[in-house]
Amino acid sequence: MGIVFVLYLLVSVELISASICPEKGDLIKVKRMLYTHWAVYVGNGSAIHTTGILEELSERYLQSLSPKDVPSEQGFHEFLSLTRRNSTAGDSEDSGSSEAQREYHITKEKFQTILAADTFAVANSQYDNRELPGFNFKPFSKSKILERLNRFVGKIYPYSLLYLNCEHFCTFVRYGTAISDQAERFLLSLRKKKRISVATKKLEDLMNA
User: For the LRAT domain, which residue ranges apply (predicted)?
Assistant: First the structure.
């Protein structure tokens, strides 16, 4: 009876995993402690995303804020400068924005590695077919999304906490429009379209480089 019960559990877990397994080209939201990390699923248990030291430093910056503080690009760069000044000469891991920038890149990894112990959700519905005049939110075909992703792999990513983060990257490869809802919460809506246009142009240039 015990063996049968264990087998039943294993089969149940397998079925549950299969039922929530994302498809190629899907947007994936991974819930971190203070923010949401984004990736695009590419099949065979792997995803492509932006990663590096700046992700860790971003979370440290957010942890340093009081409940009344609003995250800002200036505040983040000041935090990076302070981290650099406080680091030892031999500690390159926290050596500030310039060195961290060189180590922030686009890579393909196993989905479970990206997920770690955090929870995830397929997030296509957040953006698919959104109406925003002047911008496309109709998803490309799966093959087109994968082709766009592969043109980025291995490249250095010009990270910006609010203006060019992991979410901008993922929406760009799926729609051709770079946007981040989680960043827009802290920015003036008056300049939203300008920010989207600038971020989209930067990623177009990077993709074609």
Answer: 27-182
Per-residue pLDDT of 72-91, as tens digits, reads 999 999 998 888 788 754 45
* Domain encompassing residue 192: 21-52+104-208
Residue 56 has pLDDT above 90, yes or no: no
Residue 202: CATH number of its domain: 3.90.1720.10
